[in-house]
Design goal:
It catalyses: (6R)-NADPHX = (6S)-NADPHX; (6S)-NADPHX + ADP = AMP + phosphate + NADPH + H(+); (6S)-NADHX + ADP = AMP + phosphate + NADH + H(+); (6R)-NADHX = (6S)-NADHX. Its cofactor is K(+); Mg(2+). In the N-terminal section; belongs to the NnrE/AIBP family. It is elongated and about 90 Å long. Helix 13 packs parallel to helix 15. The mean pLDDT is 95. It has helices at residues 7-21, 25-42, 58-72, 90-101, 133-144, 183-186, 190-194, 206-210, 253-264, 279-285, 301-313, 327-339, 349-359, 367-373, 385-392, 396-401, 403-411, 448-461, 466-492, 495-506; strands at 2-5, 49-54, 76-81, 106-107, 117-121, 148-152, 174-178, 181-182, 196-200, 216-218, 241-245, 269-275, 290-294, 316-319, 344-347, 380-382, 417-420, 426-428, 433-435. The strands form two sheets. A twelve-stranded mixed sheet has the order 8-1-10-19-18-17-16-15-14-11-12-13, with helices on both faces. By secondary structure, it is of the alpha/beta class. It folds into two domains: 2-214, 3-Layer(aba) Sandwich (Rossmann fold); 233-509, 3-Layer(aba) Sandwich (UDP-N-acetylmuramoyl-L-alanine:D-glutamate ligase), CATH 3.40.1190.20. Helix 9 (253-264) links the parallel strand 11 and strand 12. The chain is built from 20 helices and 19 strands. It binds ligand NAX and potassium ion. The site of potassium ion has 11 residues, from strand 5 and strand 6.
Length: 510
């Protein structure tokens, strides 16, 4: 698990380290500068002309320190100071004094085209307003050039909080960021400005990180040890019963993908509840699945009784993929919402039907209060952003532009687990904001979301808590997508490839 922070949280870590722990800021800065140089050397920087472009805060001071260390190691290096030196931070003044004492060239104006490597140290996490004037000009000039750009801490101009450029930002080849990864380097579009991101440990103690208590984090492969354990003494009942209520007339793929993924991710038993028309397809494509089919046009008391039995049978229920917006689907959803006593994963048309239900509620409650009031505890909602915009009755742009704020709205003061599906999926619950970094653009393909519901369900069926299953499900789904891309490439990848690749992700953990 890797903690992620915004600028205020990072500043709090800095301040605690310096003021409470007593590690001098200049020591951290020296380590920061050394880590930038280490990274540059790893990429073969040797005889090139290097220019450190430095602003007037501590990010600029890091840049001057890096230039000085390079200079002392006989690299050809100069410093371009952008901004009013009289307003320089105390640490920058100190770094400039050292650099001048050593005779390093410090310019206020220079032709940057003479240099092949740029150390971008104009702004770090202290960026507080839109870029303009000379700063904008220099960033434009750097972006127009063909230099290799190493950004110090964060590409200058990029917001560490929103991942958006504050009007303009440096396009880096590498970003060496200190201590902890930043939201701005992970979410889109920031991650595309940052290039390769390297998180360097520069001596922030754990106690300083912990006191910030950031809700933001991502997983790495070490977190696969959270996967449910497979007991040796077991039978198919040990690994849980998944009920997949999915598909409708003419839509059979959704239940197939969800159910197959649930089996591949380790469930003991998977039952598909779908329209009678899908019977033969499911029986022939996925004979492992148990099946209950209903006649959409002949729904009687017996049907309802049987459906309630199936709801009771399940340890976890997926409802929504491909069920359509018919009255039958609406009745199915009502039965699940009313009677399920186990975690429910609500996806696709299940979410659209929920939106319709909420539209018909007229009271003084907020929209999210109404949504939560009709969902069983431990419901996992898995909307893509368009579904979410309908559910929350908010413009899509508002959602796209403020994903983390929307995650707060979805979860604040309630037990809902929301999986906001996007290029960087966010899994939000009351206390946590998991930001997923696995996966790739090849996964933007029909059926991919159905596969995700099956994986999450399988993890719950095998005993994981719903919120852990949601995070780990999203992470492993992305990892499987990455494995699938290695084999098929991002153009050719289809949902079944993700299911097939699950074996490579999960079985390493056997
Ligand atoms: N202990 C620490 O505090 C450490 C800080 N470090 C470095 O310090 C950086 C943060 O330093 P600072 O807090 O001084 O902030 P920055 O150096 O990021 O920038 C702050 C300066 O830029 C000005 N500014 C902000 N937005 C502007 C805009 N749009 N146009 C013009 N001027 C603008 C501010 O008024 C201030 O003078 C980190 O990103 C990191 O690189 C590292 O050396 C590690 C240790
Ligand atoms: K920078």
């Amino acid at each position: 698990m890797k903690t992620i922070v915004n600028s205020a949280q990072m500043k709090a870590v800095d301040d605690y380290t310096v003021e409470k722990v007593g590690i001098p800021a200049i020591v951290l800065m020296e380590r920061a500068a050394l880590s930038v140089i280490d990274e540059m050397k790893k990429h073969g920087v040797t005889k090139e002309k290097i220019l450190a472009v430095c602003g007037i805060g501590n990010n600029g001071a890091d840049g001057v320190a890096a230039a000085r260390i390079l200079y002392l190691q006989s690299y050809t290096v100069a410093i371009l100071l952008v901004g009013d030196e009289d307003k320089a931070s105390p640490l920058l003044k100190q770094q400039l004094l050292i650099a001048r004492n050593l005779g390093i060239s410090i310019y206020n104006n220079i032709a940057i085209t003479e240099y092949t490597i740029i150390i971008d140290a104009i702004f770090g996490i202290g960026l507080s307003r839109n870029i303009s004037g000379i700063y904008k000009e220099i960033i434009e000039e750097i972006n127009a050039g063909s230099h290799t750009v190493y950004s110090v801490d964060i590409p200058s101009g990029l917001s560490a909080d929103t991942a958006k450029p504050m009007d303009i930002a440096i396009k880096a080849d590498y970003t060496i960021t200190f201590g902890l990864n930043k939201i701005g380097l992970i979410l889109y579009p920031g991650c595309e400005y940052a290039g390769n991101v390297i998180v360097e440990e520069i001596g922030f103690p754990e106690i300083a990180v912990n006191q910030v208590n950031s809700p933001y984090f991502s997983y790495d492969t070490n977190d696969l040890n959270k996967l449910p354990k497979r007991l040796n003494y077991s039978n198919k009942g040990t690994f849980g019963k998944v009920l997949v209520i999915a598909g409708s007339v003419n839509i059979s793929g959704a239940c197939y993908f969800s159910a197959k993924a649930a089996y591949r991710a380790g469930s003991g038993l998977v039952k598909v509840m779908t329209a009678e028309e899908n019977r033969i397809i499911i029986q022939s494509q996925l004979p492992e699945a148990l099946l209950y089919t209903y006649k959409s046009d002949n729904w009687d008391d017996c049907t309802e009784e049987q459906i309630l039995k199936e709801i009771e049978w399940a340890k976890v229920i997926v409802i929504g993929p491909g069920i359509g917006m018919s009255n039958t689907s609406g009745r199915l959803l009502d039965l699940v919402l009313e009677h399920a006593k186990v975690p429910v994963i609500l996806d696709a048309d299940g979410i659209n039907l929920l939106s319709e239900k909420v539209n018909s509620m007229h009271n003084d409650n907020s929209r999210i209060e109404n949504i939560v009031s009709i969902l069983p505890k431990q419901t996992i909602l898995t909307p893509h952003l368009k579904e979410l915009s309908v559910l929350l009755d908010m413009p899509l742009d508002t959602i796209i532009n403020n994903l983390l704020g929307i995650a707060d709205i979805c979860t604040c003061k309630n037990d809902l687990i929301t999986v906001l599906k996007d290029a960087r999926t966010i899994v939000a619950n009351k206390k946590e904001r998991y930001i997923n970094i696995s996966g790739n653009n090849g996964m933007s393909t029909g059926g991919s979301g159905d596969v995700l519901t099956g994986i999450i369900a399988a993890f719950i069926a095998q005993g994981l808590e719903a919120k852990e299953a949601a995070k780990l499900g999203v992470y492993t789904h992305g990892l499987a997508g990455d494995k699938a891309r290695e084999l098929k490439g991002s153009y050719c990848l289809i949902a079944s490839d993700i299911i097939d690749a699950l074996a490579q992700v999960l079985n390493n953990n056997d």
